[in-house]
Amino acid sequence: MARRALVVAPTPYYIEKGSTLRVHAMVQRLRRQGYLVDVVCYDRGTDPELDGVSISRAGIRSFTSTDAGPALTDLLNDVFVSIRVFRQVLTRNYDILQGEDVEGITIALAASICTDAETIYDLHNPLTESLDLHGIPIPHRLSRAVEGALYRRVDTILANWGMWADAIRSEYDVERVEVVHDQIPAEMSEIDLPTDRYLTYVGNFEPYQGVDLLVEAFEAVAAGTDVDLVLVGDPSVEIRDLVAGSPVADRIHLLGRQPIPTANFVIANAVASVIPRRHGTQPSTKLLHYAMHDPPIIATDLRCNQELERLGHEVYWAAPTAGGIATCIEEVANHG
Question: What are the residue ranges in the chain where pLDDT is below 50?
């Protein structure tokens, strides 16, 4: 009889962004290991064309956000996901229950009382760091107690960054941790670009990403460099207004959200890619995305970006200020 895994993924699936890319990589990993995979996820996204994978959607589609970070409506959708997971566990035999991030593993552990399946926690980011990043005021003592309880209850933890695996082993005395990086599709699709020499940022435009710092830094050095700035993603109203009012608006290009193959082309042909984060400890998937390609990376010197050192990529480290980023832009442009 074929082995079967249930992946609990309280997120839209499949869409080409954020946590869903991680979920997709984990589903593919389980298939490579020989499991038939059932996925329970939110009612948003497209069914991936993968043999041996079954998708069950739960929740209210109109209440499902595709924006970065948590939403209050997630709590309601999680109730529907939980009901569907329990129904699946009670009607099918599973060898593995894998929970994606905190919500997923919480639901999976609750359902594990009905089965002898192995429990796997696919850790996207620790709870405390996620709460801090999005300004959710939960005391650290409480969030860390929840983290410890989850780590000790599960059979295996899959951490997407070495820094999280190190912290779990040292702070919680849990050794059942493996590092499994996100997997970004490598396909590339050429597009017509507005310029031949450019810096690029690819990602979301949440305030913590520091795209406003990047625009300000570019404005400061644009006159002395021959590079433009290409921004890929859905810009916020604030960033649209900032670019529209910039004295060098003709050299800042908003490409909007692009498919991954197109984003790969933009990154691969840039003079450099930029990670202008202003704060936070959570590494971004863009570290791996940028490091897949040859151009150097300009990154703010924060803990969230230090994983670049483990990846062995060429990095220009900048202070998390417009001035610090501007200095690196000048250095890269003059060497490019």
Answer: none
